[in-house]
């Protein structure tokens, strides 16, 4: 009897799940279902901490009635943080395959224009244009594909395509790109794979990720201040409420310390034009093994780095070449007083 009842419940659950999967196809994919569950849990956590505060703190409710602008700003920050979270998680980090497709399409278009023109081939060469180090890069095509020629010219001479070809995607990787095993794709300027966001952090969404951390840190700090204010004025009242608030405050304090450290770490990465992968796994990157530890090969100065990070993401297919030996020697030279006065670090 129990077995038949259990089987009937299982069949009912399977039919209900199949019906939901037809309306919501993302539920049929275990990976996407896990990502949606994680996003739902994060939203619930965001609602839980302020919800408990407004439920128990009568003084805060009175303050909201007297000064509604205070709570309005807090709610605005709360909504902006969640919106930034979903925008960042839904933004492409910049996949190498997408960049290769864009280059191939431009190459095919140039070939069609060449064939359509009545000019002889010797007077007009097809070319591919893509942003490299802030300038438009034009390269005449030879036997190799446009993408391969473009990428190989970013590396020092003598490097073979086999050295920089991804063994998983079979795509020629530009400098700073890496294959993500979670996304199963190569990412431009790969930083790390964020479990909370369910996506990689790369060139296309690193700036949005920084803003999300900043907003999350501000929201956590403000909520912690509200919790401390409650405990100061209500510590001698209901003990069970104090225990709940202290536990929530302890969890929030741990989160705040983590967020502050993460924010400072990424500020350092931005100012030196590095990624987490390049900093942590430097010795595993083939083209960076011969570079001294304290030399950042892609560093262009603080001001230029900030500009590229904040304003240089209009095209996620911006690629950087490896610096020449003379440039590395210049970066390795110690700073002097004259360099500081001449803003060499900027």
Describe this structure in words.
The protein is mainly α and 346 residues long. The chain has a domain at 96-192. It has 13 helices and 6 strands. The strands form 3 sheets. Strands 1-2 form a two-stranded antiparallel sheet. It starts with a helix and ends in a 5-residue tail after the last helix. The model is unreliable at 121-129 and 134-143 (pLDDT under 50).
Tell me how many strands there are. Answer: 6
Structural class label: mainly alpha
Q: How much helix, percentage-wise, in residues?
A: 55-70%
Oligomerization category of the chains in this entry: single chain
Shape call? globular
Compute the number of helices.
Answer: 13
Radius of gyration: 27 Å
List the helices and strands and how they pair.
Blueprint: H1 2-23, H2 30-56, H3 58-66, H4 68-90, H5 96-116, E1 127-132, E2 135-140, H6 146-152, H7 161-164, E3 178-180, E4 185-187, E5 192-194, E6 199-201, H8 206-234, H9 239-272, H10 276-280, H11 302-311, H12 325-332, H13 337-341
Antiparallel strand pairs: 1-2, 3-4, 5-6
Helix pairs in contact: 3-4, 4-8, 8-9
């Amino acid at each position: 009897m129990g077995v038949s009842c259990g089987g009937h419940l299982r069949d009912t659950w399977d039919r209900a799940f199949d019906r939901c999967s037809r309306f919501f196809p993302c539920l049929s994919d275990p990976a996407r279902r896990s990502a949606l569950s994680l996003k739902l849990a994060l939203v619930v956590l965001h609602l839980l901490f302020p919800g408990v505060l407004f439920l128990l703190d009568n003084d805060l409710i009175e303050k909201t009635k007297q000064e509604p602008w205070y709570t309005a700003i807090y709610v605005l920050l709360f909504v902006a943080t969640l919106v930034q979270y979903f925008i960042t998680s839904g933004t492409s980090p910049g996949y190498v395959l997408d960049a290769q497709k864009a280059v191939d399409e431009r190459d095919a278009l140039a070939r069609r224009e060449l064939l359509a023109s009545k000019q002889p081939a010797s007077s007009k060469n097809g070319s591919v244009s893509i942003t490299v180090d802030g300038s438009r890069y034009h390269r005449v095509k030879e036997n190799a594909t446009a993408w391969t020629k473009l990428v190989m010219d970013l590396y020092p001479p003598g490097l073979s395509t086999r050295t920089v070809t991804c063994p998983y995607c079979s795509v020629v990787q530009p400098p700073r790109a890496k294959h993500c095993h979670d996304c199963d794709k190569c990412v431009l300027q790969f930083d790390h794979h964020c479990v909370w966001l369910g996506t990689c952090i790369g060139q296309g969404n690193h700036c949005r990720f920084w803003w999300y951390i900043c907003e999350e840190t501000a929201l956590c700090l403000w909520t912690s201040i509200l919790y401390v204010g409650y405990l100061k004025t209500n510590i001698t009242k209901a003990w069970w409420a104090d225990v709940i608030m202290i536990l929530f405050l302890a969890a929030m304090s741990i989160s705040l310390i983590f967020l502050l450290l993460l924010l400072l770490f990424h500020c350092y990465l931005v100012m030196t034009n590095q990624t987490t992968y390049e900093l942590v796994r430097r010795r595993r990157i083939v083209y960076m093994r011969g570079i001294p530890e304290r030399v950042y090969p892609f560093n262009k100065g603080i001001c230029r780095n900030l500009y590229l990070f904040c304003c240089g993401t209009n095209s996620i297919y911006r690629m950087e070449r490896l610096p020449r030996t003379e440039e590395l020697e210049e970066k390795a030279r110690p700073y002097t007083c004259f360099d500081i006065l001449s803003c060499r670090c900027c």
